[in-house]
Amino acid sequence: MRSKTTTTQACNFIIFGAKGDLARRKLIPALYQLEKIGSIHPRTFILGVGRAEWDLLTYIKIVRSSLERFMKESINENIWCRFSKRFDFCNLDVNQTEQFVHVLNKLKNLDLLTINYFAMPPHTFGSICKGLSLVGLNKERNRIVIEKPLGMNFDSARVINSQVSKYFHETQIYRVDHYLGKEAILNLLVLRFANSVFFSNWDNNTIDHVQITVSEEVGIEGRWGYFDAMGQMRDMVQSHLLQILTIIAMSPPFDLSADCIRDEKVKVLRSLRMINTNTIHEIAVRGQYTAGFINGQPVPGYLEEIGSNKDSKTETFVSIKVNIDNWRWFGVPFYLRTGKRLAMKYSEVVIYFKKPILNLFKDSYSILPNNKLIIRLQPYEGIDMQILSKIPGLGNKNRLKITNLNLNLRKIFSGEYILDAYERLLLEVMRGIQVLFVRYDEIEDSWRWVDSVIEAWSLVDGVPKLYKAGTWGPSESTEMIRKGNHHWNKCTLKYTNI
Ligand SMILES: NC(=O)C1=CN([C@@H]2O[C@H](COP(=O)(O)OP(=O)(O)OC[C@H]3O[C@@H](n4cnc5c(N)ncnc54)[C@H](OP(=O)(O)O)[C@@H]3O)[C@@H](O)[C@H]2O)C=CC1
Ligand SMILES: O=C1O[C@H](COP(=O)(O)O)[C@@H](O)[C@H](O)[C@H]1O
Protein backbone atom coordinates (compact mmCIF):
# COMPACT_ATOMS: atom_id res chain seq x y z
CA MET A 1 0.00 0.00 0.00
CA ARG A 2 1.16 3.53 -0.71
CA SER A 3 0.35 6.87 0.90
CA LYS A 4 -2.21 8.95 -0.90
CA THR A 5 -0.53 10.69 -3.78
CA THR A 6 0.16 14.38 -3.38
CA THR A 7 -0.03 16.06 -6.73
CA THR A 8 1.85 19.23 -7.44
CA GLN A 9 1.22 22.01 -9.90
CA ALA A 10 2.89 21.93 -13.30
CA CYS A 11 6.29 23.62 -13.37
CA ASN A 12 9.52 24.09 -15.25
CA PHE A 13 12.11 22.40 -13.05
CA ILE A 14 15.60 23.60 -13.95
CA ILE A 15 18.66 21.80 -12.57
CA PHE A 16 21.77 24.01 -12.74
CA GLY A 17 24.81 21.71 -12.46
CA ALA A 18 23.15 18.79 -14.28
CA LYS A 19 26.43 16.94 -14.70
CA GLY A 20 27.40 17.20 -11.04
CA ASP A 21 27.26 14.67 -8.23
CA LEU A 22 24.31 16.19 -6.36
CA ALA A 23 22.16 16.27 -9.49
CA ARG A 24 22.95 12.70 -10.49
CA ARG A 25 23.15 11.08 -7.06
CA LYS A 26 20.23 12.74 -5.32
CA LEU A 27 18.00 14.89 -7.52
CA ILE A 28 17.40 12.59 -10.49
CA PRO A 29 16.56 9.52 -8.34
CA ALA A 30 14.28 11.65 -6.12
CA LEU A 31 12.44 13.05 -9.15
CA TYR A 32 12.01 9.52 -10.52
CA GLN A 33 10.48 8.37 -7.22
CA LEU A 34 8.08 11.32 -7.28
CA GLU A 35 7.16 10.31 -10.83
CA LYS A 36 6.57 6.79 -9.61
CA ILE A 37 4.16 7.86 -6.86
CA GLY A 38 2.34 10.17 -9.24
CA SER A 39 3.38 13.39 -7.55
CA ILE A 40 4.75 15.17 -10.60
CA HIS A 41 2.23 16.98 -12.74
CA PRO A 42 1.95 15.57 -16.28
CA ARG A 43 2.97 18.93 -17.75
CA THR A 44 6.06 19.41 -15.57
CA PHE A 45 9.19 19.83 -17.67
CA ILE A 46 12.77 19.20 -16.44
CA LEU A 47 15.71 21.10 -17.90
CA GLY A 48 19.30 20.19 -17.10
CA VAL A 49 21.80 23.04 -17.41
CA GLY A 50 25.58 22.70 -17.54
CA ARG A 51 28.81 23.34 -19.37
CA ALA A 52 28.89 19.89 -20.98
CA GLU A 53 28.30 19.89 -24.71
CA TRP A 54 25.57 17.29 -24.62
CA ASP A 55 22.69 16.83 -27.01
CA LEU A 56 19.36 15.66 -25.65
CA LEU A 57 20.04 11.99 -26.34
CA THR A 58 23.32 12.09 -24.43
CA TYR A 59 21.64 13.80 -21.49
CA ILE A 60 18.84 11.24 -21.39
CA LYS A 61 21.51 8.53 -21.27
CA ILE A 62 23.15 10.32 -18.32
CA VAL A 63 19.80 10.53 -16.54
CA ARG A 64 19.23 6.82 -17.04
CA SER A 65 22.73 5.87 -15.91
CA SER A 66 22.26 8.04 -12.79
CA LEU A 67 19.17 6.02 -11.92
CA GLU A 68 20.96 2.74 -12.59
CA ARG A 69 23.86 3.76 -10.40
CA PHE A 70 22.24 5.59 -7.52
CA MET A 71 18.79 4.06 -7.10
CA LYS A 72 18.32 1.09 -4.82
CA GLU A 73 15.74 -0.47 -7.15
CA SER A 74 15.76 -1.24 -10.85
CA ILE A 75 14.12 1.04 -13.38
CA ASN A 76 10.50 0.37 -14.26
CA GLU A 77 10.25 0.82 -18.05
CA ASN A 78 6.72 2.25 -17.95
CA ILE A 79 7.75 4.91 -15.47
CA TRP A 80 10.96 5.58 -17.38
CA CYS A 81 8.97 6.09 -20.57
CA ARG A 82 6.93 8.87 -18.89
CA PHE A 83 9.85 10.28 -16.94
CA SER A 84 12.40 10.48 -19.79
CA LYS A 85 10.01 12.49 -21.97
CA ARG A 86 10.12 15.36 -19.52
CA PHE A 87 13.79 16.22 -20.05
CA ASP A 88 15.82 18.61 -22.14
CA PHE A 89 19.37 19.96 -21.76
CA CYS A 90 20.82 23.46 -22.15
CA ASN A 91 24.53 24.08 -22.57
CA LEU A 92 25.50 27.16 -20.56
CA ASP A 93 28.34 28.63 -18.56
CA VAL A 94 26.42 30.48 -15.84
CA ASN A 95 29.07 33.18 -15.66
CA GLN A 96 27.93 34.30 -19.12
CA THR A 97 24.76 35.82 -17.84
CA GLU A 98 23.83 37.26 -21.21
CA GLN A 99 23.45 33.66 -22.44
CA PHE A 100 20.52 32.90 -20.11
CA VAL A 101 18.21 33.59 -23.00
CA HIS A 102 19.10 30.04 -24.13
CA VAL A 103 17.51 28.73 -20.96
CA LEU A 104 14.41 30.75 -21.63
CA ASN A 105 14.24 29.46 -25.20
CA LYS A 106 14.26 25.88 -23.97
CA LEU A 107 11.19 26.35 -21.77
CA LYS A 108 8.17 25.12 -23.65
CA ASN A 109 5.59 26.85 -21.51
CA LEU A 110 6.47 30.21 -20.03
CA ASP A 111 3.18 30.39 -18.17
CA LEU A 112 4.34 27.74 -15.73
CA LEU A 113 6.03 28.49 -12.47
CA THR A 114 9.79 27.86 -12.65
CA ILE A 115 11.80 26.10 -9.95
CA ASN A 116 15.55 26.67 -10.24
CA TYR A 117 17.64 24.14 -8.34
CA PHE A 118 21.23 25.33 -7.88
CA ALA A 119 23.21 22.06 -7.71
CA MET A 120 26.29 24.26 -8.04
CA PRO A 121 29.06 25.67 -5.89
CA PRO A 122 27.94 28.75 -3.89
CA HIS A 123 30.31 31.12 -5.72
CA THR A 124 28.09 30.72 -8.81
CA PHE A 125 24.82 31.66 -7.04
CA GLY A 126 25.19 35.38 -7.72
CA SER A 127 25.65 34.85 -11.48
CA ILE A 128 22.76 32.42 -11.73
CA CYS A 129 20.44 34.83 -9.93
CA LYS A 130 21.55 37.69 -12.13
CA GLY A 131 21.15 35.60 -15.30
CA LEU A 132 17.67 34.50 -14.27
CA SER A 133 16.64 38.06 -13.54
CA LEU A 134 17.90 39.24 -16.93
CA VAL A 135 15.39 36.95 -18.63
CA GLY A 136 12.58 37.58 -16.16
CA LEU A 137 12.79 34.20 -14.43
CA ASN A 138 12.92 35.80 -11.00
CA LYS A 139 9.24 36.74 -11.16
CA GLU A 140 7.34 36.45 -7.90
CA ARG A 141 5.91 32.96 -8.40
CA ASN A 142 9.32 31.44 -9.31
CA ARG A 143 11.53 29.73 -6.77
CA ILE A 144 15.18 28.96 -6.21
CA VAL A 145 16.61 26.08 -4.22
CA ILE A 146 20.09 26.34 -2.74
CA GLU A 147 22.16 23.78 -0.86
CA LYS A 148 24.55 23.83 2.00
CA PRO A 149 27.28 24.79 2.61
CA LEU A 150 25.84 28.30 2.73
CA GLY A 151 29.11 29.98 3.62
CA MET A 152 31.83 28.88 5.97
CA ASN A 153 31.26 31.55 8.57
CA PHE A 154 28.82 34.35 9.41
CA ASP A 155 30.34 36.85 6.95
CA SER A 156 30.39 34.53 3.93
CA ALA A 157 26.86 33.29 4.72
CA ARG A 158 25.73 36.90 4.72
CA VAL A 159 27.31 37.47 1.34
CA ILE A 160 25.41 34.50 -0.12
CA ASN A 161 22.16 35.65 1.46
CA SER A 162 22.59 39.13 0.07
CA GLN A 163 23.53 37.85 -3.41
CA VAL A 164 20.36 35.82 -3.72
CA SER A 165 18.07 38.28 -1.94
CA LYS A 166 19.09 40.96 -4.42
CA TYR A 167 17.04 39.12 -7.04
CA PHE A 168 14.65 36.88 -5.10
CA HIS A 169 12.34 37.57 -2.18
CA GLU A 170 12.72 35.36 0.92
CA THR A 171 9.42 33.62 0.09
CA GLN A 172 11.01 32.44 -3.17
CA ILE A 173 14.19 31.05 -1.57
CA TYR A 174 14.32 27.41 -0.40
CA ARG A 175 17.50 26.62 1.56
CA VAL A 176 18.00 22.89 1.84
CA ASP A 177 19.15 21.10 4.98
CA HIS A 178 18.38 17.55 3.96
CA TYR A 179 17.93 16.45 7.58
CA LEU A 180 14.71 18.47 7.62
CA GLY A 181 13.38 16.13 4.94
CA LYS A 182 13.89 13.02 7.05
CA GLU A 183 10.67 11.43 8.27
CA ALA A 184 11.88 11.05 11.87
CA ILE A 185 12.73 14.75 12.11
CA LEU A 186 9.25 15.66 10.86
CA ASN A 187 7.82 13.36 13.48
CA LEU A 188 9.52 15.41 16.21
CA LEU A 189 6.99 18.19 15.69
CA VAL A 190 4.12 15.74 16.07
CA LEU A 191 5.70 14.05 19.07
CA ARG A 192 6.18 17.35 20.83
CA PHE A 193 3.03 19.25 19.95
CA ALA A 194 0.35 16.58 19.49
CA ASN A 195 1.04 14.63 22.67
CA SER A 196 0.19 16.41 25.89
CA VAL A 197 2.35 14.03 27.91
CA PHE A 198 5.42 15.50 26.24
CA PHE A 199 4.04 18.95 25.51
CA SER A 200 3.57 19.64 29.21
CA ASN A 201 6.84 18.05 30.34
CA TRP A 202 9.33 19.74 28.09
CA ASP A 203 11.42 22.26 30.00
CA ASN A 204 13.89 22.69 32.82
CA ASN A 205 11.32 21.63 35.42
CA THR A 206 11.19 18.09 34.10
CA ILE A 207 14.17 17.56 31.81
CA ASP A 208 17.65 16.99 33.18
CA HIS A 209 19.64 17.09 29.97
CA VAL A 210 19.47 16.24 26.27
CA GLN A 211 21.89 14.33 24.05
CA ILE A 212 21.96 14.53 20.26
CA THR A 213 24.21 12.07 18.45
CA VAL A 214 24.71 11.88 14.69
CA SER A 215 27.39 9.30 14.11
CA GLU A 216 28.65 8.25 10.71
CA GLU A 217 30.61 5.24 9.52
CA VAL A 218 31.79 6.93 6.35
CA GLY A 219 35.04 8.83 6.12
CA ILE A 220 35.34 11.77 3.79
CA GLU A 221 34.61 9.76 0.63
CA GLY A 222 37.08 11.44 -1.70
CA ARG A 223 35.93 14.94 -0.68
CA TRP A 224 39.22 15.96 0.93
CA GLY A 225 39.34 19.45 -0.58
CA TYR A 226 35.85 20.34 0.56
CA PHE A 227 35.94 18.62 3.92
CA ASP A 228 39.38 19.73 5.02
CA ALA A 229 38.39 23.36 4.55
CA MET A 230 35.18 22.83 6.52
CA GLY A 231 35.61 20.19 9.24
CA GLN A 232 32.81 18.47 11.14
CA MET A 233 31.83 21.61 13.06
CA ARG A 234 30.94 23.54 9.92
CA ASP A 235 29.85 20.55 7.83
CA MET A 236 27.52 18.88 10.35
CA VAL A 237 27.04 20.89 13.55
CA GLN A 238 26.25 24.26 11.95
CA SER A 239 23.54 22.67 9.83
CA HIS A 240 22.06 19.31 10.78
CA LEU A 241 22.78 19.18 14.52
CA LEU A 242 21.69 22.74 15.21
CA GLN A 243 18.54 22.15 13.17
CA ILE A 244 17.70 19.09 15.28
CA LEU A 245 18.49 21.07 18.43
CA THR A 246 16.17 23.92 17.46
CA ILE A 247 13.28 21.56 16.78
CA ILE A 248 13.77 19.89 20.14
CA ALA A 249 14.19 23.18 22.01
CA MET A 250 11.78 25.56 20.27
CA SER A 251 8.68 26.81 22.05
CA PRO A 252 5.32 25.83 20.57
CA PRO A 253 4.53 27.75 17.39
CA PHE A 254 0.98 29.10 17.26
CA ASP A 255 0.45 27.45 13.89
CA LEU A 256 2.38 25.26 11.46
CA SER A 257 3.22 27.98 8.97
CA ALA A 258 6.82 28.28 7.85
CA ASP A 259 7.43 31.65 9.44
CA CYS A 260 5.80 30.78 12.70
CA ILE A 261 7.96 27.68 13.11
CA ARG A 262 11.09 29.44 11.91
CA ASP A 263 10.51 32.38 14.26
CA GLU A 264 10.59 29.95 17.18
CA LYS A 265 13.70 28.19 15.89
CA VAL A 266 15.53 31.48 15.48
CA LYS A 267 14.74 32.43 19.09
CA VAL A 268 16.54 29.26 20.22
CA LEU A 269 19.57 30.03 18.06
CA ARG A 270 19.75 33.53 19.50
CA SER A 271 19.71 32.09 23.01
CA LEU A 272 22.73 29.83 22.53
CA ARG A 273 25.44 30.80 24.96
CA MET A 274 28.52 31.93 23.03
CA ILE A 275 31.73 30.03 23.59
CA ASN A 276 35.01 31.73 24.44
CA THR A 277 38.59 30.82 25.25
CA ASN A 278 37.76 30.48 28.96
CA THR A 279 35.03 27.90 28.40
CA ILE A 280 36.11 26.01 25.29
CA HIS A 281 38.36 23.47 27.07
CA GLU A 282 35.66 22.33 29.41
CA ILE A 283 32.76 22.05 27.04
CA ALA A 284 34.06 21.12 23.61
CA VAL A 285 36.16 18.29 22.22
CA ARG A 286 37.31 17.92 18.67
CA GLY A 287 38.87 14.80 17.27
CA GLN A 288 40.44 13.35 14.17
CA TYR A 289 40.33 9.66 13.21
CA THR A 290 43.33 7.44 12.78
CA ALA A 291 43.35 4.10 10.99
CA GLY A 292 41.03 1.46 12.41
CA PHE A 293 38.26 -0.95 11.50
CA ILE A 294 34.70 -0.35 10.36
CA ASN A 295 32.50 -3.46 10.23
CA GLY A 296 35.62 -5.58 10.48
CA GLN A 297 37.26 -3.92 7.46
CA PRO A 298 40.48 -1.90 7.82
CA VAL A 299 40.10 1.80 6.95
CA PRO A 300 42.78 4.48 6.65
CA GLY A 301 43.19 7.39 9.04
CA TYR A 302 42.12 10.91 8.03
CA LEU A 303 45.69 11.91 7.21
CA GLU A 304 46.08 8.85 4.95
CA GLU A 305 42.94 9.62 2.90
CA ILE A 306 43.41 10.35 -0.81
CA GLY A 307 44.33 14.00 -1.29
CA SER A 308 45.43 14.49 2.31
CA ASN A 309 47.99 17.17 3.08
CA LYS A 310 49.33 15.01 5.98
CA ASP A 311 49.48 17.66 8.68
CA SER A 312 45.88 18.81 8.64
CA LYS A 313 44.38 19.83 11.98
CA THR A 314 40.80 19.66 10.72
CA GLU A 315 38.36 17.94 13.07
CA THR A 316 36.37 14.91 11.96
CA PHE A 317 34.64 14.63 15.35
CA VAL A 318 32.99 17.15 17.64
CA SER A 319 31.29 16.79 20.98
CA ILE A 320 30.09 19.89 22.71
CA LYS A 321 27.94 20.99 25.61
CA VAL A 322 25.48 23.65 24.51
CA ASN A 323 23.74 25.94 26.96
CA ILE A 324 20.52 27.66 25.98
CA ASP A 325 20.05 30.81 28.00
CA ASN A 326 16.29 31.17 27.90
CA TRP A 327 13.50 30.63 30.45
CA ARG A 328 12.61 27.17 29.19
CA TRP A 329 16.08 25.66 29.07
CA PHE A 330 18.33 27.53 31.47
CA GLY A 331 20.33 24.90 33.39
CA VAL A 332 19.62 22.04 30.95
CA PRO A 333 22.72 21.08 28.96
CA PHE A 334 22.29 19.89 25.39
CA TYR A 335 25.20 17.62 24.48
CA LEU A 336 25.91 17.30 20.76
CA ARG A 337 28.15 14.61 19.31
CA THR A 338 28.97 13.87 15.70
CA GLY A 339 31.87 12.29 13.85
CA LYS A 340 33.08 10.45 10.81
CA ARG A 341 34.33 6.85 11.02
CA LEU A 342 32.54 6.14 14.28
CA ALA A 343 31.41 2.72 15.49
CA MET A 344 28.10 2.75 13.60
CA LYS A 345 25.84 4.93 11.48
CA TYR A 346 23.26 5.98 13.98
CA SER A 347 21.42 9.15 14.93
CA GLU A 348 19.34 9.72 18.00
CA VAL A 349 18.04 12.30 20.41
CA VAL A 350 17.88 11.22 24.04
CA ILE A 351 15.84 13.20 26.52
CA TYR A 352 16.85 12.46 30.11
CA PHE A 353 14.02 13.33 32.48
CA LYS A 354 14.76 14.41 36.03
CA LYS A 355 14.80 11.79 38.76
CA PRO A 356 12.04 11.69 41.39
CA ILE A 357 12.98 13.99 44.26
CA LEU A 358 12.62 11.16 46.79
CA ASN A 359 13.81 7.62 46.30
CA LEU A 360 11.33 5.18 47.90
CA PHE A 361 13.00 2.17 46.34
CA LYS A 362 16.44 2.24 47.87
CA ASP A 363 16.34 -1.52 48.38
CA SER A 364 16.43 -1.92 44.61
CA TYR A 365 18.29 1.20 43.42
CA SER A 366 20.45 3.35 45.69
CA ILE A 367 20.05 6.07 43.06
CA LEU A 368 17.10 5.88 40.71
CA PRO A 369 18.00 6.10 37.03
CA ASN A 370 16.50 8.80 34.83
CA ASN A 371 13.55 8.01 32.59
CA LYS A 372 14.84 8.28 29.05
CA LEU A 373 12.97 9.14 25.88
CA ILE A 374 15.07 7.89 22.99
CA ILE A 375 14.09 9.22 19.60
CA ARG A 376 15.84 7.19 16.92
CA LEU A 377 16.30 9.23 13.78
CA GLN A 378 18.19 6.82 11.54
CA PRO A 379 18.33 4.02 10.69
CA TYR A 380 15.05 2.40 11.83
CA GLU A 381 13.09 5.45 12.93
CA GLY A 382 11.39 4.90 16.24
CA ILE A 383 10.80 5.98 19.78
CA ASP A 384 11.73 4.20 23.00
CA MET A 385 10.67 5.24 26.45
CA GLN A 386 12.65 3.72 29.28
CA ILE A 387 10.72 3.42 32.53
CA LEU A 388 11.19 1.52 35.77
CA SER A 389 8.85 -1.41 36.41
CA LYS A 390 8.40 -3.84 39.25
CA ILE A 391 9.65 -7.34 38.57
CA PRO A 392 6.57 -9.49 39.30
CA GLY A 393 6.67 -11.77 42.31
CA LEU A 394 6.14 -12.06 46.03
CA GLY A 395 8.67 -10.98 48.56
CA ASN A 396 9.08 -8.04 50.84
CA LYS A 397 11.45 -6.16 48.62
CA ASN A 398 10.48 -4.30 45.50
CA ARG A 399 12.68 -5.41 42.69
CA LEU A 400 12.73 -2.84 39.89
CA LYS A 401 13.98 -3.13 36.34
CA ILE A 402 14.40 -0.66 33.50
CA THR A 403 11.88 -1.64 30.85
CA ASN A 404 11.39 -0.31 27.40
CA LEU A 405 8.26 0.91 25.64
CA ASN A 406 9.24 0.58 22.04
CA LEU A 407 7.69 2.04 18.89
CA ASN A 408 9.24 0.90 15.65
CA LEU A 409 7.73 3.42 13.26
CA ARG A 410 8.77 1.54 10.10
CA LYS A 411 6.96 -1.57 11.36
CA ILE A 412 3.86 0.19 12.60
CA PHE A 413 3.46 2.09 9.35
CA SER A 414 4.84 -0.66 7.14
CA GLY A 415 2.12 -0.13 4.52
CA GLU A 416 3.03 3.52 4.02
CA TYR A 417 5.54 4.81 1.53
CA ILE A 418 8.23 6.71 3.44
CA LEU A 419 9.73 9.40 1.29
CA ASP A 420 13.47 9.80 1.30
CA ALA A 421 14.73 13.24 2.39
CA TYR A 422 15.30 14.63 -1.12
CA GLU A 423 11.97 13.26 -2.39
CA ARG A 424 10.19 15.02 0.46
CA LEU A 425 12.07 18.29 -0.05
CA LEU A 426 11.54 18.38 -3.83
CA LEU A 427 7.86 17.72 -3.25
CA GLU A 428 7.64 20.58 -0.77
CA VAL A 429 9.37 22.98 -3.20
CA MET A 430 6.88 22.00 -5.88
CA ARG A 431 4.03 22.53 -3.41
CA GLY A 432 5.48 25.89 -2.39
CA ILE A 433 5.69 25.04 1.32
CA GLN A 434 8.74 26.46 3.10
CA VAL A 435 8.40 24.84 6.54
CA LEU A 436 11.21 22.35 5.87
CA PHE A 437 13.63 24.95 4.53
CA VAL A 438 15.95 27.18 6.46
CA ARG A 439 15.34 30.93 6.64
CA TYR A 440 18.20 33.40 6.14
CA ASP A 441 18.33 34.37 9.81
CA GLU A 442 18.56 30.74 10.98
CA ILE A 443 21.64 30.39 8.80
CA GLU A 444 23.20 33.60 10.09
CA ASP A 445 22.44 32.99 13.76
CA SER A 446 23.76 29.43 13.68
CA TRP A 447 26.97 30.66 12.05
CA ARG A 448 27.33 33.34 14.72
CA TRP A 449 27.46 30.65 17.42
CA VAL A 450 29.63 28.24 15.36
CA ASP A 451 32.07 31.07 14.67
CA SER A 452 32.45 31.61 18.42
CA VAL A 453 33.48 27.96 18.85
CA ILE A 454 35.88 27.94 15.93
CA GLU A 455 37.45 31.20 16.98
CA ALA A 456 37.96 29.94 20.54
CA TRP A 457 39.58 26.78 19.16
CA SER A 458 41.90 28.82 16.99
CA LEU A 459 42.98 30.92 19.96
CA VAL A 460 43.70 28.04 22.31
CA ASP A 461 45.60 25.01 21.04
CA GLY A 462 45.43 23.87 17.48
CA VAL A 463 45.35 20.07 17.67
CA PRO A 464 42.37 17.74 17.59
CA LYS A 465 42.45 14.67 19.86
CA LEU A 466 43.04 11.43 17.99
CA TYR A 467 40.55 8.56 17.95
CA LYS A 468 40.64 5.19 16.25
CA ALA A 469 38.21 4.65 13.37
CA GLY A 470 35.41 2.38 14.55
CA THR A 471 35.21 3.81 18.10
CA TRP A 472 32.98 6.49 19.64
CA GLY A 473 35.56 9.25 19.37
CA PRO A 474 38.34 10.48 21.66
CA SER A 475 38.25 9.57 25.36
CA GLU A 476 38.15 13.31 26.13
CA SER A 477 34.56 13.29 24.86
CA THR A 478 33.55 10.78 27.57
CA GLU A 479 35.47 12.87 30.09
CA MET A 480 33.76 16.10 28.99
CA ILE A 481 30.25 14.77 29.60
CA ARG A 482 31.32 13.00 32.81
CA LYS A 483 32.30 16.37 34.29
CA GLY A 484 28.62 17.30 34.14
CA ASN A 485 27.79 14.01 35.97
CA HIS A 486 26.39 12.53 32.79
CA HIS A 487 27.49 9.87 30.36
CA TRP A 488 26.76 9.24 26.71
CA ASN A 489 23.79 7.02 26.03
CA LYS A 490 25.03 3.70 24.71
CA CYS A 491 23.89 3.73 21.09
CA THR A 492 22.26 0.43 20.33
CA LEU A 493 19.92 -1.02 17.77
CA LYS A 494 18.87 -3.61 20.37
CA TYR A 495 15.31 -2.36 20.77
CA THR A 496 14.50 -1.74 17.16
CA ASN A 497 13.00 -5.17 16.32
CA ILE A 498 14.32 -4.77 12.80
N1 LIG B 1 26.98 15.97 -3.85
C1 LIG B 1 26.18 15.99 -2.80
O1 LIG B 1 25.62 14.95 -2.37
C2 LIG B 1 25.90 17.28 -2.10
C3 LIG B 1 26.36 18.48 -2.59
N2 LIG B 1 26.06 19.66 -1.95
C4 LIG B 1 26.48 20.95 -2.49
O2 LIG B 1 25.88 21.14 -3.75
C5 LIG B 1 26.77 21.83 -4.62
C6 LIG B 1 27.08 20.96 -5.82
O3 LIG B 1 27.73 19.80 -5.37
P1 LIG B 1 28.21 18.62 -6.30
O4 LIG B 1 27.16 18.24 -7.27
O5 LIG B 1 28.71 17.57 -5.40
O6 LIG B 1 29.42 19.28 -7.06
P2 LIG B 1 30.01 18.87 -8.47
O7 LIG B 1 31.34 19.52 -8.57
O8 LIG B 1 29.92 17.41 -8.71
O9 LIG B 1 29.02 19.58 -9.50
C7 LIG B 1 28.94 20.96 -9.65
C8 LIG B 1 28.43 21.23 -11.04
O10 LIG B 1 28.46 22.64 -11.24
C9 LIG B 1 28.85 22.87 -12.56
N3 LIG B 1 29.42 24.20 -12.75
C10 LIG B 1 30.40 24.80 -12.03
N4 LIG B 1 30.65 26.04 -12.54
C11 LIG B 1 29.80 26.21 -13.58
C12 LIG B 1 29.55 27.26 -14.48
N5 LIG B 1 30.23 28.40 -14.44
N6 LIG B 1 28.57 27.10 -15.41
C13 LIG B 1 27.87 25.95 -15.48
N7 LIG B 1 28.06 24.90 -14.65
C14 LIG B 1 29.02 25.04 -13.72
C15 LIG B 1 29.90 21.83 -12.83
O11 LIG B 1 29.98 21.70 -14.22
P3 LIG B 1 31.25 21.04 -14.92
O12 LIG B 1 30.99 19.59 -14.81
O13 LIG B 1 31.20 21.58 -16.28
O14 LIG B 1 32.48 21.50 -14.15
C16 LIG B 1 29.30 20.61 -12.14
O15 LIG B 1 28.49 19.87 -13.00
C17 LIG B 1 28.02 22.11 -3.79
O16 LIG B 1 27.92 23.38 -3.23
C18 LIG B 1 27.98 21.04 -2.71
O17 LIG B 1 28.67 21.41 -1.56
C19 LIG B 1 25.29 19.65 -0.83
C20 LIG B 1 24.81 18.50 -0.30
C21 LIG B 1 25.10 17.21 -0.87
O1 LIG C 1 25.48 17.14 4.66
C1 LIG C 1 26.15 16.17 4.93
O2 LIG C 1 25.55 15.06 5.39
C2 LIG C 1 26.17 13.78 5.30
C3 LIG C 1 25.40 12.85 6.24
O3 LIG C 1 24.07 12.73 5.78
P1 LIG C 1 23.21 11.42 6.09
O4 LIG C 1 21.88 11.71 5.50
O5 LIG C 1 23.93 10.28 5.41
O6 LIG C 1 23.19 11.24 7.57
C4 LIG C 1 27.64 13.87 5.69
O7 LIG C 1 28.30 12.63 5.49
C5 LIG C 1 28.32 14.93 4.84
O8 LIG C 1 29.68 15.08 5.25
C6 LIG C 1 27.61 16.27 4.99
O9 LIG C 1 28.13 17.19 4.04
UniProtKB/TrEMBL annotation:
<feature type="binding site">
    <location>
        <position position="178"/>
    </location>
    <ligand>
        <name>substrate</name>
    </ligand>
</feature>
<comment type="pathway">
    <text>Carbohydrate degradation; pentose phosphate pathway; D-ribulose 5-phosphate from D-glucose 6-phosphate (oxidative stage): step 1/3.</text>
</comment>
<feature type="binding site">
    <location>
        <begin position="93"/>
        <end position="94"/>
    </location>
    <ligand>
        <name>NADP(+)</name>
    </ligand>
</feature>
<dbReference type="InterPro" id="IPR001282">
    <property type="entry name" value="G6P_DH"/>
</dbReference>
<dbReference type="InterPro" id="IPR019796">
    <property type="entry name" value="G6P_DH_AS"/>
</dbReference>
<dbReference type="GO" id="GO:0004345">
    <property type="term" value="F:glucose-6-phosphate dehydrogenase activity"/>
</dbReference>
<dbReference type="GO" id="GO:0006006">
    <property type="term" value="P:glucose metabolic process"/>
</dbReference>
<comment type="similarity">
    <text>Belongs to the glucose-6-phosphate dehydrogenase family.</text>
</comment>
<feature type="binding site">
    <location>
        <position position="340"/>
    </location>
    <ligand>
        <name>substrate</name>
    </ligand>
</feature>
<dbReference type="Pfam" id="PF02781">
    <property type="entry name" value="G6PD_C"/>
</dbReference>
<feature type="binding site">
    <location>
        <position position="148"/>
    </location>
    <ligand>
        <name>NADP(+)</name>
    </ligand>
</feature>
<dbReference type="InterPro" id="IPR022675">
    <property type="entry name" value="G6P_DH_C"/>
</dbReference>
<dbReference type="GO" id="GO:0005829">
    <property type="term" value="C:cytosol"/>
</dbReference>
<feature type="domain" description="Glucose-6-phosphate dehydrogenase NAD-binding">
    <location>
        <begin position="14"/>
        <end position="187"/>
    </location>
</feature>
<dbReference type="GO" id="GO:0050661">
    <property type="term" value="F:NADP binding"/>
</dbReference>
<feature type="binding site">
    <location>
        <position position="216"/>
    </location>
    <ligand>
        <name>substrate</name>
    </ligand>
</feature>
<dbReference type="Pfam" id="PF00479">
    <property type="entry name" value="G6PD_N"/>
</dbReference>
<keyword id="KW-0560">Oxidoreductase</keyword>
<keyword id="KW-0313">Glucose metabolism</keyword>
<feature type="binding site">
    <location>
        <position position="51"/>
    </location>
    <ligand>
        <name>NADP(+)</name>
    </ligand>
</feature>
<feature type="binding site">
    <location>
        <position position="345"/>
    </location>
    <ligand>
        <name>substrate</name>
    </ligand>
</feature>
<feature type="binding site">
    <location>
        <position position="235"/>
    </location>
    <ligand>
        <name>substrate</name>
    </ligand>
</feature>
<feature type="active site" description="Proton acceptor">
    <location>
        <position position="240"/>
    </location>
</feature>
<keyword id="KW-0119">Carbohydrate metabolism</keyword>
<dbReference type="GO" id="GO:0009051">
    <property type="term" value="P:pentose-phosphate shunt, oxidative branch"/>
</dbReference>
<comment type="function">
    <text>Catalyzes the oxidation of glucose 6-phosphate to 6-phosphogluconolactone.</text>
</comment>
<keyword id="KW-0521">NADP</keyword>
<feature type="domain" description="Glucose-6-phosphate dehydrogenase C-terminal">
    <location>
        <begin position="189"/>
        <end position="489"/>
    </location>
</feature>
<feature type="binding site">
    <location>
        <position position="182"/>
    </location>
    <ligand>
        <name>substrate</name>
    </ligand>
</feature>
<protein>
    <recommendedName>
        <fullName>Glucose-6-phosphate 1-dehydrogenase</fullName>
        <ecNumber>1.1.1.49</ecNumber>
    </recommendedName>
</protein>
<dbReference type="InterPro" id="IPR036291">
    <property type="entry name" value="NAD(P)-bd_dom_sf"/>
</dbReference>
<dbReference type="InterPro" id="IPR022674">
    <property type="entry name" value="G6P_DH_NAD-bd"/>
</dbReference>
